[in-house]
Structures are given as structure tokens and as C-alpha cells.
Design brief:
Elements (H helix, E strand, L loop, with lengths): L3 E2 L6 E4 L5 H8 L13 H5 L13 E6 L5 E8 L3 H4 L6 H8 L2 E9 L8 H15 L4 E6 L4 H6 L3 E3 L3 E4 L3 E3 L7 E6 L5 E3 L8 E3 L12 E2 L4 E2 L1
Parallel strand pairs: 5-6, 8-12
Antiparallel strand pairs: 1-2, 2-3, 3-4, 4-5, 6-10, 7-10, 8-9, 11-12, 13-14
The protein binds coenzyme A.
Length: 225
């Protein structure tokens, strides 16, 4: 994808390419200073062929650059790992469909000298557009507590748990002990539905046949219509 202008003077966004690996990895190393290689797999993704539906198959790597072409921020997103080992979603019939419908922003990082100027927000809005255009229904991220308000302002709902309703009335709810989840529905089929008995909304309609029926409630074990 060609570079796109943003509403910020001089700042453009473009898909990452293989020679960007060091710059992208350096920016991402700032997300978790205790584990600077936490997003080291971005290098493998950048080495993959640049083909759709996102920048590198089902991975999106975007670089923000200033007017001189220097990298000022990056966003790394793709398929949620939990889908691959959750007992409900890892079923071969479901997995392929769900990885085409649910995406996760793994990391966003902006160079310290450019923070607070809206680059992070431009990267996140760009990711929302790219995932929407690629046919996804839900974009999620695991949220640092101090950034919950920030993602709320960007149109995400902050929830204790991510609960996804899949066909046949089953539900998948990955467990994260340390973070809450931010999620944003991307199309008219997908809704974050309030269900009596559950503290977090349920992702309804992510696949055909997965809408939560009106009047449904959770009894502590399963969903009833
Ligand atoms: C989080 C981050 C990507 C935001 O990028 P940015 O370009 O500075 O963000 P924007 O300019 O769009 O928005 C700035 C707003 O974000 C919020 N914000 C950013 N970092 C924050 C923090 N550590 N605590 C609380 N609020 C924060 C504030 O509301 C801030 O507004 P302010 O400047 O008026 O206080 C950037 O601060 C960063 O790279 N941080 C280090 C890496 C990281 O934590 N990444 C996020 C987790 S993956």
C-alpha cells in the first residue's frame, strides 16, 4: 500500500517492508522495557511476502514517518494467539473463519520525541480502517490500565473479559490475569451485546449463526435463550 497522508503536518503512514525491521523493532522495544524482544516476531512477519488482506497476509505492520522520512511510530497487529489454543476456537472448522474476522493490535509505539502529537491515534485509526476494509468484524487489544481512557476515546469498549459467542451457542473467553481488554466492532453484523448474568458484553454476530438471541441470559454455566 502506498504512503498515506495523515491530518498531522508532515506525518505519513505506510506499510512496513523488510528493510524497516531494525527501525520497527527498535520502536517496539519501548513498549515493554523489561522484555525488549517481546515483539521480535515482527522481523519474521516483515520478511514475508507483501500481500493482502493486510500488509503481510493476516499481519499488519505500519510505519509512521516525519517529513524527512524518519520513523516516528509503528503499529503491529494480526491474528490473536489465543484463538489457536482455546478449546472452542482452535477447532479446525472455526479457526480459519475466526482468524479472518478477529484481529488484535499487539503493539503501538511512538518515538518519545513525538508523543502527545496524535501519531498514536493516527496509527490506531488507520488500523481500524485496514481491518474493516479487509472484512474483519472485531479489533481487540490488551490494554495497559493507564491507556484505557485513551482507547475509549478512540471508539473501543474496555471490558474485564473478552467473551465471543460462536455458532451452536458456544462461547469462548480467553483468560488474561493482568490486563483488561479493549474491543471495537467493525461491521454491522458484529455487536457487543449486554447479557444478564455476565459482567462483560458478549461479542455477537462475528460469524454467521453466532448472534446472541434477544432475551438470552447466562446462568453461571451456559447461555439460555
Ligand atoms: C501509548 C502511545 C503509543 C501513544 O502514542 P502518542 O502518539 O503519544 O498518542 P497520541 O498523541 O495519539 O495521544 C496522546 C494521549 O495518549 C494518552 N497517553 C499516552 N501515554 C499515556 C500514558 N503512559 N499514561 C496515560 N495516558 C497516556 C494521553 O491521554 C495523551 O494525551 P496528552 O498528551 O494530552 O496527555 C505512546 O505514548 C507510546 O509509544 N508509549 C510507549 C509504548 C506503549 O506504551 N504502547 C502502548 C501499548 S502497546
Amino acid at each position: 500500500m502506498k504512503a498515506v497522508r495523515t491530518r498531522l503536518p508532515g506525518i505519513t503512514l505506510r506499510d512496513g517492508v523488510a528493510p524497516d525491521a531494525d527501525a520497527v523493532a527498535q520502536l517496539l522495544s519501548m513498549v515493554n522495557p523489561d522484555d525488549p524482544e517481546a515483539f521480535g516476531d515482527v522481523r519474521l512477519n516483515l520478511a514475508m511476502p507483501q500481500e493482502g488482506p493486510l500488509s503481510h497476509s493476516r499481519t499488519l505492520v505500519v510505519l509512521a514517518e516525519d517529513a524527512q522520512g524518519s520513523p516516528v511510530g509503528t503499529l503491529f497487529a494480526g491474528a490473536p494467539f489465543w484463538l489457536f489454543d482455546h478449546p472452542v476456537t482452535s477447532h479446525p472448522d472455526l479457526l480459519g473463519e475466526l482468524v479472518a474476522r478477529i484481529g488484535v493490535i499487539s503493539a503501538v509505539a511512538v518515538h518519545p520525541g513525538h508523543r502527545g502529537g496524535g501519531v498514536g491515534a493516527e496509527l490506531i485509526r488507520h488500523a481500524v480502517r485496514r481491518f474493516t476494509r479487509a472484512g474483519y468484524g472485531l479489533l481487540t487489544l490488551n490494554c495497559f490500565p493507564e491507556l484505557e481512557e485513551y482507547y475509549d476515546r478512540l471508539g473501543f469498549t474496555i471490558m474485564d473479559d473478552l467473551i465471543v459467542h460462536v455458532p451452536d451457542g458456544r462461547m469462548a473467553a480467553p483468560v488474561w490475569d493482568d490486563t483488561r481488554v479493549a474491543a471495537r466492532a467493525l461491521d454491522r453484523h458484529t455487536v457487543l451485546a449486554a447479557v444478564p448474568g455476565l459482567d462483560s458484553p458478549v461479542v455477537s454476530g462475528i460469524l454467521p449463526g453466532s448472534r446472541v438471541p434477544a432475551g438470552a441470559y447466562f446462568d453461571g454455566e451456559k447461555l439460555h435463550n
